[in-house]
Design goal:
32% helix, alpha/beta, 3-stranded antiparallel sheet, globular, 7-stranded parallel sheet
Length: 359
């Protein structure tokens, strides 16, 4: 059965970009909230000024099992948002990602096991678990292209070819039943978190929903950090009077979903019947290119803003296109995004960003 009254929810990472939006939504709907967050200096320049006074805050690390045990007392559900996000700087970040994401998840599940916790678990997962998005060849139908080759990228050949005939492919929507193929360290850790949670579910009976976020943007994104999303990086450039640098040819297709919609998806997942479980895309269902996003942000800044510059280049861990079907979330969670791309980007051009990262 679904929850029908007030819950007490543990939100890990509840001081962060997405986590704080979820906390606000829970408090405004009359739920009790406990936040577990370590204010990681890679994302925070100190304690944010936007923290909701209606929540209880525990300033500890998710790798600390004792912190989890304290935070779990009396909660009905866990909403796990805490993670090291983004592609990072290079592969040297691998130990930090695994420690924060895999070990942090393991510490939490171990604490839940010890407490006999069988309530709802909602996990912040990511579109990156899919690797490349969906593709179709005119001759061979749906296909799975392999990883893009450095020699192709260096030559400016950014579109993955059909693995059977080499022809150009059409980008298609990814459903939750698509094969997973994580292609960077962050992606691998997010998929492992899913696997760990579903393993715990099978043993404990705790229902688990993994929300595979697409490109989330909106107020409170961290600025000036290599771990931020592309929308935040472009916004920071414009704020500094600089033109956003758009990699490749700007034609990479993504689904940009506003943080308020992501918070709504989490509320829907927390309130879902216990029979609902599995992975769900959290997306707007309306794809846009990276170039379109950069120009929409520049438009939001006004006519005097520098225009985005397509500079070529690439990040090896990036994929070309990844856009999603939102239909499963609509059918089973009752969630559909409501903030339009145009309205959201105009708002984001002037929205509050996270405090500068501590040095």
């Amino acid at each position: 059965m679904a929850y029908t009254g007030p819950m007490r929810v543990l939100v890990t990472g509840g001081a962060g970009f997405i986590g704080s939006a979820i906390v606000d939504a829970l408090v405004s709907n009359g739920h009790g909230v406990v936040v577990l967050d370590n204010l990681d200096p890679a994302a925070h320049g100190g304690q944010p000024g936007y923290l909701n006074p209606g929540a209880r805050y525990i300033w500890r690390d998710i790798r600390d099992g004792e912190a989890w045990r304290e935070a779990l007392v009396g909660v009905d559900a866990v909403c796990h948002q805490a993670a090291k996000v983004g592609l990072g700087v290079n592969f040297a970040d691998v130990e930090e990602y695994v420690a924060a994401n895999d070990a942090g998840m393991a510490a939490g599940l171990r604490a839940m096991h010890g407490a006999g916790f069988a309530g709802r678990i909602v996990l912040a997962s990511s579109m990156v678990v899919y690797g490349e998005g969906g593709y179709a060849c005119a001759e061979h139908g749906p296909v799975r292209p392999g990883p893009r080759r450095v020699e192709d990228l260096d030559a400016g050949r950014f579109e993955p070819p059909c693995p059977r005939c080499g022809a150009q492919l059409a980008s298609t929507l990814v459903g939750e039943d698509a094969p997973v193929d994580p292609r960077n360290v962050y992606a691998a850790t997010k998929l492992h978190q899913e696997h760990l949670c579903f393993a715990y579910s099978r043993e404990s009976g705790a229902p688990v929903i993994a929300l595979r976020y697409h490109n989330v943007y909106g107020p409170r994104m961290p600025r000036d950090t290599p771990y931020a999303g592309v929308a935040s990086i472009f916004r920071s450039a414009l704020e500094g009077g600089q033109a956003p640098n758009v990699f490749e040819d700007g034609g990479q297709r993504r689904d940009f979903v506003h943080v308020r919609d992501v918070a709504s998806a989490n509320i829907a997942a927390l309130m879902a019947p216990s029979t609902v479980s599995g992975a769900f895309n959290v997306a707007s269902g309306v794809p846009h290119t990276i170039g379109e996003m950069a120009n929409a942000l520049a438009d939001g800044f006004g006519a005097a803003a520098p225009r985005p510059q397509v500079v070529g280049g690439y990040r090896l861990g990036d994929v070309r296109h990844i856009v999603a079907s939102p239909e499963k979330a609509a059918a089973e969670l009752g969630f559909r995004a409501s903030v339009s791309f145009e309205a959201g980007m105009t708002e984001f051009a002037h929205a509050e960003l996270r405090n500068a990262v501590a040095t």
